[in-house]
């Protein structure tokens, strides 16, 4: 692998980790859409700053874009406060407006300069290694890598320092306010970081991937754990895995890097959604199946215990009788008999089911419970 | 009465948009009472509590806690929000939620230490939830979640407690346990202000009462305030089913057991 390729993977991993860290709080605050809004609206800030300074220098761009991100959040808040629209609708109103103003400005006045929409949406990861950071005459690596690292460190430091405050303001903003930890301040601080992260990342990976990385990995991590620190770490891990795998696949099929990475975040999310131990679809499905079997087996025990010692027992105990009595299909009846026999609740002789002592005990417990 | 006023509300008016939700409300709550705030849905009970806590801005009027604005008295006030106001799927456990009650004492940036954990555990034990400390909060029943919220308020070690419907959705056992806890707090000289919905139990549980319906209808000792006339004013003649001031004779709830003595 060439140095440039390794650098691309490094840049993508750093950006991924940074996005997932801050995105975790977006997911927990049910503000996933905000990543969408901010990463699009910042285009306007970038364009305006470009017209003002006629240059693509990074720092003014980042400042302008961050300001637009915060403006987006503020406008959304204003709209929500009118109580005429809900937050998701407000977000959906604000950012297309800002984004489209940005697009119009570009296409009207800057069509021939280097600010095209494709680059905004998908980034230019392939070219990132060519823009080097030279310090004191020495080449110390791609600029984008250092930018990504700085923002990643800022995000990490912010979350480590204000972990407790972020947690409180996210879980219970009312208590946060009552205790004097301004949730509004925390909200804007968080949104400022989302903006900074989005703008510093999007030159490299584009806004689509920024959104995918901010939401996909944390949402998958949320399904895998009940603990916030683990969720943060897992989110970062899954984001980096998406970036690396995405790059490798793009390399193999010679496709879009950002597109392939974004796809990987989706693929990983779907896999986690299926197989997550507690909240995954498969585990939920098998839990329901087990509960259904448990319930049916208990019904069988109660049925048998009610007829034990009665004259009609010979008829009631027959395996073949179950399908008629409980309206069970034959495979299901067989499954339930197996379920109960595995637990030593019943024994079978001459096609007749009898309760064991354990089965009798379970049956009486069930009857007390209900 | 020469007891100091734990809470004093003067001419308080609160409006969402242009619609007034609280009109010119006055209230004086002496220290050491166990008070119910009662009124129909939408009467502004939650709004009153939130305004006292500074969570909702007031259009006019003032709030004093032991003679000072809330911002100067945060340490003295404990808050139990409505259970439905938070997302119980949040990835954290019961102990962690209780610890949140200590965040103000801990201050910005610093993390809870061993001492704070012990306090939170003690507080969980007081509501009979010690063995659920590590339990993910979504795996608690509604009544258990309510107890966790109570434990969080207890750990604040406040003088005045504001509680929004702590009895909502809990079973009879938990309700008795909560009442016992409230009485212990009152015996320790705390003031408790509780939004309550069940008129049947007002006289039995509480010694002080405020009837609210956008306006202040009446407030004072339960025996004076809990009258058919006042209830009609508050509810608009829709309360034929309660017998004012007969709650304590109903006998449908035995003397509440202490949670402390049940040992969890
Ligand atoms: N954030 C808000 N914005 C606008 N109106 C609100 C808001 N919160 C509450 N209201 C309105 O204010 C009024 C009082 O609400 P509040 O929640 O204080 O009533 P409540 O007495 O607590 O009712 P409940 O018994 O149903 O809990 C209601 O009419 C409600 O619709
Ligand atoms: Mg309410």
Give a topology summary:
The complex is a heterodimer of chains A (about 375) and B (about 260).
Chain A lengths: L2 H26 L3 H22 L4 H24 L5 H23 L7 H6 L9 E4 L2 E5 H19 L1 H9 L1 H6 L4 H42 L3 H26 L3 H19 L5 H27 L5 H4 L2 H8 L3 H13 L3 E4 L2 E4 L1 H13 L1
Antiparallel strand pairs in A: 1-2, 3-4
Helix pairs in contact in A: 1-6, 1-9, 1-10, 2-3, 2-4, 2-9, 3-4, 3-9, 6-9, 9-10, 9-11, 10-11, 12-15, 12-16, 14-15
Chain B lengths: L4 E12 L2 E12 L3 E5 L6 H8 L7 E6 L11 E4 L13 H6 L3 H4 L7 H13 L15 H14 L4 E5 L7 H16 L3 E5 L6 H4 L2 E6 L1 E7 H4 L2 H8 L11 H4 L8 H4 L2
The structure holds adenosine-5'-triphosphate and magnesium ion.
Can you describe this structure?
The complex is a heterodimer of chains A (370) and B (264). With 370 residues, chain A is mainly alpha-helical. Chain A has 2 domains: 3-277, Orthogonal Bundle (ABC transporter involved in vitamin B12 uptake, BtuC); 282-369, Winged helix-like DNA-binding domain superfamily/Winged helix DNA-binding domain (Arc Repressor Mutant, subunit A, Orthogonal Bundle). Chain A has 16 helices and 4 strands. Chain A has helices at 3-28, 32-53, 58-81, 87-109, 117-122, 143-161, 163-171, 173-178, 183-224, 228-253, 257-275, 281-307, 313-316, 319-326, 330-342, 357-369, and strands at 132-135, 138-142, 346-349, 352-355. Chain A has a two-stranded antiparallel sheet with strand order 1-2. In chain A, a hairpin with a 2-residue loop joins strand 3 (346-349) and strand 4. Chain A is elongated and about 100 Å long. With 264 residues, chain B is α/β, with parallel strands linked by helices. Chain B is built from 11 helices and 9 strands. In chain B, the strands form 2 sheets. Chain B has a 6-stranded mixed β-sheet with strand order 5-6-7-3-8-9, sandwiched between helices. Chain B has a 3-stranded antiparallel β-sheet with strand order 2-1-4, covered by helices on one side. In chain B, helix 4 crosses helix 5 (142-155). Chain B is globular. Chain A binds chain B through residues 28, 30, 83, 161-165, 167-168, 170-172, 174-175, 177-181, 222, 225-228, 230-231, and chain B through 16-17, 50, 53-55, 71, 74, 77, 79, 81, 85-87, 90-93, 96-97, 100-101, 103-104, 106, 108-112, 136, 138, 152. The structure holds adenosine-5'-triphosphate and magnesium ion (MG). Adenosine-5'-triphosphate binds next to helix 1 of chain B.
């Amino acid at each position: 692998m060439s140095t440039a390729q390794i650098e691309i993977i490094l840049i993508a991993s750093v950006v991924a980790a940074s996005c997932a860290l801050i995105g975790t709080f977006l997911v927990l605050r049910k503000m996933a859409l905000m990543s969408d809004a901010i990463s699009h609206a910042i285009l306007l800030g970038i364009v305006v700053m470009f017209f003002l300074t006629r240059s693509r220098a990074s720092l003014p761009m980042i400042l302008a874009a961050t300001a637009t991100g915060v403006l987006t959040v503020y406008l959304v808040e204003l709209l929500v406060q009118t109580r005429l629209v809900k937050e998701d609708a407000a977000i959906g109103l604000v950012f297309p407006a800002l984004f489209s103003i940005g697009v119009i400005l570009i296409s009207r006045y800057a069509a021939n300069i280097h600010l095209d929409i494709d680059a905004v949406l998908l980034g230019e990861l392939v070219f990132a290694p060519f823009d080097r950071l030279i310090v004191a005459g020495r080449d110390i690596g791609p600029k984008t890598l250092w930018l990504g690292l700085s923002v990643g460190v800022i995000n990490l430091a912010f979350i480590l320092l204000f972990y407790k405050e972020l947690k409180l303001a996210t879980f219970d903003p009312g208590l946060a306010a009552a205790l004097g930890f301004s949730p509004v301040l925390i909200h804007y601080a968080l949104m400022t970081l989302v903006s900074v992260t989005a703008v510093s990342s999007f030159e490299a990976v584009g806004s689509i991937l920024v959104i995918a990385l901010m939401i996909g990995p944390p949402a998958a991590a949320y399904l895998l754990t009940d603990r916030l620190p683990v969720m943060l770490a897992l989110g970062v891990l899954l984001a980096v895995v998406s970036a690396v795998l995405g790059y490798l696949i793009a390399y193999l099929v010679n496709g879009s890097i950002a597109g392939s990475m974004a796809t990987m975040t989706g693929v990983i999310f779907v896999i986690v959604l299926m197989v997550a131990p507690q909240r995954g679809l498969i585990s939920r499905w098998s839990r329901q199946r087990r509960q259904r079997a448990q319930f049916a087996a208990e019904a069988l025990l109660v049925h048998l215990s009610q007829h034990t010692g009665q004259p009609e027992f010979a008829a009631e105990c027959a395996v073949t009788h179950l399908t008629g009595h409980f309206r069970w299909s034959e495979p299901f009846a067989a499954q339930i008999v197996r379920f109960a026999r595995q637990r030593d609740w019943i024994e079978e002789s001459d096609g007749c089911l009898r309760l064991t002592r354990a089965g009798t005990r379970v049956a009486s417990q069930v009857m007390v419970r209900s | 009465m020469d007891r100091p006023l734990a809470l004093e509300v003067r001419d308080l008016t609160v409006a969402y948009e242009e619609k007034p939700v609280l009109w010119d409300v006055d209230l004086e709550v002496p220290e050491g009472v166990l008070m119910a705030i009662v009124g129909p849905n939408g009467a502004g009970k939650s709004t009153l509590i939130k305004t006292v806590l500074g969570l909702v801005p007031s259009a006019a009027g003032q709030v004093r806690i032991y003679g000072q604005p809330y911002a100067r008295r945060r340490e003295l006030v404990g808050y139990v929000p409505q259970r439905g106001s938070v997302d119980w799927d949040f990835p954290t456990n019961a102990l962690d939620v209780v610890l949140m009650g200590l965040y103000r004492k801990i201050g910005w940036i610093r993390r809870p230490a061993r001492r704070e954990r012990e306090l939170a555990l003690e507080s969980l034990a007081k509501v009979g939830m010690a063995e659920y400390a590590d339990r993910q909060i979504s795996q608690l029943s509604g009544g258990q979640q309510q107890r966790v919220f109570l434990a969080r308020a207890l750990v604040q070690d406040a003088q005045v407690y504001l509680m929004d419907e702590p009895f909502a959705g809990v079973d009879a056992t938990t309700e008795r346990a909560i009442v016992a806890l409230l009485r212990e707090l009152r015996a320790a000289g705390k003031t408790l202000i509780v939004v309550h919905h069940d008129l049947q139990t007002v006289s039995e549980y509480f010694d002080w009462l405020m009837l609210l319906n956008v306006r202040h209808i009446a407030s004072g000792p339960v025996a004076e305030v809990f009258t058919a006339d006042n209830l009609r004013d508050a509810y608009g003649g829709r309360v034929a089913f309660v017998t004012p001031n007969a709650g304590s004779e109903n006998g449908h709830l035995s003397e509440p057991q202490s949670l402390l003595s049940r040992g969890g």
